[in-house]
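REQUEST FORM: STRUCTURE PREDICTION
Request ID: SP-0412
Submitted by: Lab K.M.
Chain count: 1
Length (residues): 523
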Amino acid sequence: MLKAALIFQDHMTLQRDKIIAIWGTAAAGSQVSVTVQNMTQSCTAAEDDSWCVKIGPLQPSFQETVMITDGKDNLCFSDVQVGDVYLAAGQSNMEFHMRFDADFASEKESCLNENIRFFDYPEVSYPEQLDEADYLKNYGFWRKAEPEQLQWFSAPAYYFAKTIQARYNIPVGLVGCNWGGTPACAWMSEESIREGGGVIYLDEYLAALKDLDIASYDKQFRANPANFRVDHFADPVSVMLMEGMAFPDIMVKLGMPVPDMSNIDPSEWETPMGPKTETRPGGLYESMLCKVAPYGLKGILYYQGESDGDRYPEIYFTLFPALIRGFRKLWQDELPFLFVQLAPFGHWMACIGKPYAVIREAQQHTADTVPGVGMAVISDIGMELDIHPKKKKPVGERLALLAENRIYGEDVLCEAPTLCGLESEEGLIRLSFANAGNGLYLADHTPDGAATNPTRLEGLKLWIDGAEINTGDISAEAKDNTIVLRSPLLHQGQVKAELGIGDWYRINLYNSADLPARPARCS
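STATUS: Completed
RESULT:
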């Protein structure tokens, strides 16, 4: 029987100006033909019943029909658009639904735009799981940006698409392929993991399997409803956590005893490692990513890294670039890769923000060394006690600004202010910044409404001749591409400055593109 892959459906968005792949299954040896925009291409189904037709390039269009036939059965997909398609990948901050976004209520009133469409691949940790529960009730089909559908959209991806669609007046499609709490290695092939220096993940997985009672593991896995993510909004505890409620408060609201959080072993909450666990190396690469590849894309949006900070953050320096190469290899396309640097963060549940400073450095290293990438900085919208910043509009808009420059070739400032030099004298230190645009400024509040002091450079640490200086009483003034610090505490000597280095901080320094300064060191 003729079938197309799950992602090919009514209301889909196809990528313009490229040869794209359309694939599925049919009887071995049958001739499968695809017709769209008066073009027809064919192929012969292989012995394993798989087929893949390459067709295009397609011209931008707001209304198309795609016909597929094997001479016996026919498929017809209607209300198809042709524009730019982006993969929205990563963990919970990319998965983060519009329902939980700070601006959801106001956005819902004005979001009617059928030219923004979203396909969210079901969160299955092994391929066969898709047939073991009713995933397709809520996932695995194309939604339009309209009030009754908006809550399901990835918030960063939605705000990105909204900006790009309005800027270029083309259809924009989003393909969600993400899962909260997952490390980079879950989204990589074994080859890419080894290439990225992540052998320890493979070794730990093999060690976990060595003495695993598969029958007991499988019984435990199936008995846990949380392992079958058929509705992200069905679990009230999860919903309240994403809304920002503290775990003890949730217990009180549900009439349950409040546990002593200091005595809770986080490992007791984790799914045991095994062949169906979503965090296993290569698991989601196989069960999710490979199921949407090589769907035609314009680029990739990525927001992930928190789960790598919890284990071996130093490996991210090599693992993350290998992940990018692995995505491109899977799509056989040197796709632009735009990612989000982790926000400032203190602690939440069992997560501690201190190691995330290493992840941010690894992300900056990737932005500096890997071709065709861009990094969105969100050093101004983190939350000290919540790993999920609720203001996702700046995230999507900053990714869109990167796309305007890196993908669409616009001459716009898309890089964050970067501390690059300093000069000192008695009572004064002058900090120099790259990417200032038409000038720097110190804000009195951040995009999420948090008040800041426009006479101070927040997030700054200073040392003179090895002694740390209290920066709380140091005044700051923005002038062109510099910040001038003044205080009797300042004197000539060996000066070291850090901006936004550590776990929790809040940046209030912006360039003329309203981009916050990124974490940096200078001496």
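NOTES: Residues 94 and 448 are 18 Å apart (CA to CA).
Reviewed by: T.R.
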